[in-house]
Amino acid sequence: MSDLETMPGHLIRRLQQISVALFTHRMGEAEIDLTPVQFAALVTLRQHPGIDQQTLAGMIAYDRVTIGGVVDRLVLKGLVLRETSPADRRARVLALTDQGQDLLGEAAPLVERVQEDILGALSAPEQATFVALLSRVTASGNELSRAPLRRSKAAGYVVNS
């Protein structure tokens, strides 16, 4: 497998570049200041209001140290409210603001179009197969990541280990 163009790792990296470019283009057209990671954080907070930053990091497979900066920017944009947890004064719990809810409502259909753009070269059955295989490969390598995906017990999931 010496041909770069047939190496899965290279192709996955290229697809990530394409995905981010499409996302950035769609958000730019709509004049929405949002990154893919910020979008993932907002979606997760809509689904699980009141989770802490550490749980958020695990649920979007993002580095725990770096998530603070992501949350800081979302707070500065007025999209997320961060408060000290009443249950644990060391933890910071997060929730979407009304502005965050509105922006997410505006961005979500654009992100759906990005997904369609990414998979547009495939037929519907091929798309389903591709996503299923990508999900399986990603899940099998989860623990190899420096930021593995974690599901929170508090959010109603079993913790992956």
UniProtKB/TrEMBL annotation:
Top-level taxon of origin: Bacteria
Keyword Nuclease included in the entry's annotation: no
Keywords carried by this UniProt record: DNA-binding, Transcription, Transcription regulation
Native organism: Novosphingobium clariflavum
SMART domains cross-referenced by the UniProt entry: HTH_MARR (SM00347)
Domain called HTH marR-type: residue spans: 8-139
Protein name (database record): MarR family winged helix-turn-helix transcriptional regulator
UniProt keyword Transcription regulation, yes or no: yes
UniProt-listed InterPro entries: HTH_MarR-typ (IPR000835), MarR/SlyA-like (IPR039422), Tscrpt_reg_MarR-type_CS (IPR023187), WH-like_DNA-bd_sf (IPR036388), WH_DNA-bd_sf (IPR036390)
